[in-house]
Amino acid sequence: MGDGRAVLRSTIRESLASEAMHALGIPTTRALTIVTSDTPVVRETVEKGAMLMRIAQSHLRFGHFEHFYYRREPENVRQLADYAIRRHWPQLQDEADKYHLLVPGCGCPHGNHDCPLAVRRLCSWRDEHRQHVNSGADL
Fold first, then answer.
1. DSSP state of 3
2. pTM to 2 decimals?
3. Tens of pLDDT, residues 85-103
4. In terms of residue numbers, what domain contains 83?
């Protein structure tokens, strides 16, 4: 609905979907727990609100980079990239072109071989139509 609130039924569905993806070997965050709220949420009817708490190796997302990029804060983009390299790809730290290796094409360290097919297709589409894509939200 776009109001930033979740209801119990959709939160349960999201939890089941993420666990199914994990069971299929698809990289995803894991559902830790669902917490309900007494605050009513209006959808087709008034429903119980809920929140899905997730766990992951990292909650770093492309949007974090975009936040600093669109605020014209290149030093913060660099700091975030340095953090990502230290935390997730330490083998890139001493590379002269570590930032290009971090995000070749669109975000697959060491090229497209480490990325799921859907990500490779999305990245190639974005690269091919770069003049029409302003941010990840445009995809």
1. S
2. 0.54
3. 898 888 888 988 887 777 6
4. 62-138
